[in-house]
Design goal:
It is a single chain. By secondary structure, this protein is α+β, with helices and mostly antiparallel strands. It has one domain. 21% of the residues lie in helices and 41% in strands. The strands form two sheets. Strands 1, 3, 5, 6, 7 and 8 form a six-stranded antiparallel sheet that branches. The chain starts with a helix and ends with a strand. The N terminus is likely disordered.
Length: 103
């Protein structure tokens, strides 16, 4: 198992982020907020994160997912999935899966 995956599995077991939802139209968790949470949760691994890219905003509905790509300083890429677990008023909660190496 790659170093990053081993270290991150422990960090991900109980990761949950609570974020304010955007106020206009459909409730979403912004792309930039998801990317920031990924950097915050996985940034302390042996390989330094140089970039995080998500496809778009995360719909604030339980079960909705967003896949994001993490690039590290050693030019490896990983994917992680943000999954909405709960929505309460203007706050959305999501978990992040353990990153899986793609290259």
């Amino acid at each position: 198992m790659p170093k990053m995956s081993r270290l991150l599995v422990l960090a991900v077991l109980a990761v949950s982020a609570a974020l304010l939802l955007t106020a206009c139209g459909e409730k979403t968790i912004s792309k930039s907020t998801v990317e920031q949470q990924i950097k915050a949760k996985f940034g302390g691994s042996a390989e330094k994160i140089t970039d995080v890219a998500c496809d778009g905003d995360l719909d604030a509905k339980v079960g909705k997912t967003q896949t994001c790509t993490i690039t590290t300083s050693d030019h490896k890429t990983y994917t992680t999935t943000a999954t909405v677990t709960r929505v309460s008023g203007d706050t959305g909660y999501f978990n992040l899966s353990a990153p899986k190496q793609t290259s």
